Amino acid sequence: MIQENALKRGSAWEVLKTAVRLGLTSFGGPIAHLGYFREEYVNRRKWIDEKTYADLVALCQFLPGPASSQVGMAIGFIRAGFWGAIAAWIGFTLPSAVALALFAGFLKGTSFRETGWLHGLLVAAVAVVAHAVWGMAKNFASDRPRATIAITAAILALMIPSVFSQVGIIVGAGIAGWIFFRNVPGAQPVPITLSFNKKAAGVLLILFFVLLGLLPVARKFTDSNWVALFDSFYRSGALVFGGGHVVLPLLQAEVVPSGWLTADQFLAGYGAAQAVPGPLFTFASYLGMASFGWKGAVVATLAIFLPSFLLIIGALPFWNWLRDHPRFQAALYGINAAVVGILLAALYHPVWTKAINSPADFCLALAAFGLLAVWKRTPWIVVGFSAAGGALLSLVS
């Protein structure tokens, strides 16, 4: 039975509309996306509460694949079931996927140079991530023990920037939480009703591993370019931890040696991927388009995101069951503090180091932060303001 304070359900259509807007305005990479999501889904629309959001971020940081896209799928699933998850993925992914496919179709071999307005979008990401870290720290790292975990997580994330360090940090924080916070009374999670039970979720998790094992075999025996394309991008999406830029060397190893693209074409597409909003994994749309046309773009995009979809929808019912247990709640107490630290580390690198190059950049970021935190303006207004400010600064500098 759904409790009175349980998260409300909605329609896939409203999820799609909201996700499209985020897909059009969420610049700055996966960590910035989490800031945009928090502002939209937690603060403005109140589809989920702060604790549920932090728990979801922790879960998706632990799973392989693009964390921000998985958080969006999970929120869509919680809000409107299976079709809500699909709507959330389509809305957030489609704008950048189409833009990058068009870039591959009409601007082959063209390099992409950063402009003033594009730099302004990176500055906007600084404001959005800083606001998210600030808000989450007040909720999940407000006392001495959790603040210590958050600071330690940030230091480790910056000093040991390996692919698996983030997973190790979350596991370590979970163990620390289980040991030190087992007797600390915490807020009970808001009840969530899911349209999938654990049996159905288990089928999706099995399918994830079956495809991971069978696709290379099918590729070897069919000698089909389409099977090879699907296998390459499915494997890249399934085996990468950290998401975003971490997937790039995997993709390069799949498409350049095979002769599907030249190294110059790959780099041109990577440059364009920095200029569009939405998930960096839509770089697959560019690569598929440049290799095999529109059909290739569709196959590559579906293949690289499918593992993430299977994993997050398959994991949610088990996660929803676990988070009600006191011992797991204690672990989440530490994990959520570590997530704050990981976001804090990402605020410095790559967000800050890539965007703030001068006092003028810092002033623009401060003004954008004020719009978001003090004046409570929506993220798309902050994005427009920062793009205009970046263009203006490029003219006067």
From TrEMBL:
It is found in: Cell membrane. The chain crosses the membrane at residues 82-104, 116-137, 149-181, 201-221, 233-251, 271-289, 296-318, 330-348, 355-374, 380-396. Its main location: membrane. It is a multi-pass membrane protein. Keywords: Cell membrane, Membrane, Transmembrane, Transmembrane helix. GO terms for molecular function: chromate transmembrane transporter activity. GO terms for cellular component: plasma membrane. InterPro entries: Chr_Tranpt_l_chain (IPR014047), Chromate_transpt (IPR003370). NCBIfam families: 2A51. Belongs to the chromate ion transporter (CHR) (TC 2.A.51) family. This is Chromate transporter, chromate ion transporter (CHR) family.
